[in-house]
Amino acid sequence: MVNVVLAADLGGTNLRIAAVDSVGTILHLAKRPVPKGVSPEQLIELVREMAAECGSFDAVACSAPAPAAKEFDGVLTKLPNLPSLVGMNLKAALDDLFHLPVTIENDATAAGIGEDWIGASQNVSTSVCVTLGTGIGGGIIINGEPLRGLDGTGGEVGHICVEPDGRPCGCGGHGCIEQYASGTAIERMASEAGMNVTTAAQVYEAWAADDKQAKAVFNTMGRYLGIMLAGLANTLNPEMFVICGGVTQGWDAFAPRVKAEILARAYPAAAACQTRSRQTRRQRRPARSRTFRLSTPIIVNKN
Predict the structure, then answer these.
(1) CATH superfamily of 4-100
(2) Which end of the chain has the lower number of beta carbons within 10 A, N or C?
(3) DSSP 3-state assignment of 80?
(4) DSSP 84
């Protein structure tokens, strides 16, 4: 029986590694930035250093912003936010490093599975988890099982087109929601508006200080995110949306426009709105969350 897993989450900005027991308790958590243009060798050395902080463990699970089919061989492909790692066999590298069972999963799918296991959506059978960070990902759970599609790209909601002739995206397309509602997009739109910022967090601070340009940025961001969520609501009719990731720290700045777009675009049956606040996490992982109810509740986890 596996008692402790080394769980790693590779993002476009940060690498998080934790020792987690069989009921989901986090025993140790480490976080470090991912160097720009990181090489496979640099990444594995970073994993080695961080894993040494986590004590002993029996297996390794790593999530990455790449497609992961049921029979995934561990080779990373389609990495718009980590192009220097395309072609890396992450599973083989971790096998060689730890000599333990290794599982690789798409990062947003892993988030959806986690929410379904012990998180906000644990009591529903059909949910959509949307991760808002450096990029945008999606973990879709249908009847308790993750939706992967034919080749593992199922659930890539970050590359839903919301502006047909819009900005080019790292995936090769144009007008993807990732170009309008991710942390990277917020920083870019603010810079284009003449703001002197380098992070989405700084844009949120400006919004909190009543900056008109920051308000306009978040209004645009919320509009596009609401368009996407309304489309998903109409297409999948899930029991719940779970919104998570670093960008949700600024939820108050864009939530009103998100709600307005969903109410305007979703089917009337999905638009009976009720707003409330509650705790969605179990005691071992406390987090303040907000939900507004259409016919599909939307849970926002800020962690």
Answers:
(1) ATPase, nucleotide binding domain (3.30.420.40)
(2) N
(3) coil
(4) G
Beta bridge partners of 5: 20, 59
Q: Kindly state the tokens that stand for 297.
A: 């509740």
Secondary structure class of 49 (helix, strand, coil): helix
Instruction: Enumerate the domain spans of the chain.
Output: 4-100, 123-301
For the stretch 125-174, pLDDT in tens is: 999 999 999 999 999 999 999 998 888 788 999 999 999 999 999 989 99
DSSP 152-181: S-TT-GGG-BSSTT--B-TTS-BSBTHHHH
Q: What is the pTM of this model?
A: 0.86
Residue that has been written with the tokens 């939900």 in this structure: 291
| pLDDT < 70: residue spans in the chain | 1-2, 70, 269-297, 303
pLDDT in tens, 20-43: 999 999 999 999 999 999 999 999
- Specify the length of the chain in residues: 303
Residue 223 tokens read as 């509009």
Using CA atoms, how far apart are residues 263 and 114, in angstroms rounded to an integer? 28
Cα separation, 215 vs 199, whole angstroms: 15
Q: Could you check whether 4-100 and 123-301 share the same CATH topology?
A: yes
Look up the CATH number of domain 123-301.
3.30.420.40
Rg of the chain on CA atoms, in Å = 19
Do 65 and 136 touch, CB atoms closer than 8 A? no
